[in-house]
Amino acid sequence: VVFFNSIEIYCNSFDITGGVIKAVFFGSIIAVLGCYYGLNSPNGAEGVGKATTKTVVSSIIAICVFNALLTFVLF
Predict the structure, then answer these.
(1) Torsion angle of alpha carbons 23, 26, 32, 34, nearest 10°?
(2) What predicted TM-score, i.e. pTM, was given to this entire model?
(3) Each residue of 28-69: pLDDT tens digit?
(4) What's the angle, vertex CA 15, arms to CA 13 and CA 18, rounded to 5?
(5) Residue burial 5-19, b: 16+ Cβ < 10 Å; e: rest
């Protein structure tokens, strides 16, 4: 009960909406980069491993950059 009361006090609807927008955007970034590197990976287990590493690194960098941009635009 205390937790939900504090949410009502400290959060407004725009905070929730902004969080949902960012979550959808970040999920899309991860999906697009995963598909791109996965579909363009060389044959074999080594190629899949390298594609996975590239996807993770690219996703982290892209999310950090777009998080700063979306925070500036939304808030």
Answers:
(1) -100
(2) 0.79
(3) 999 999 999 999 999 899 999 999 999 999 999 999 999 999
(4) 105
(5) eeeeeeeeeeeeebe
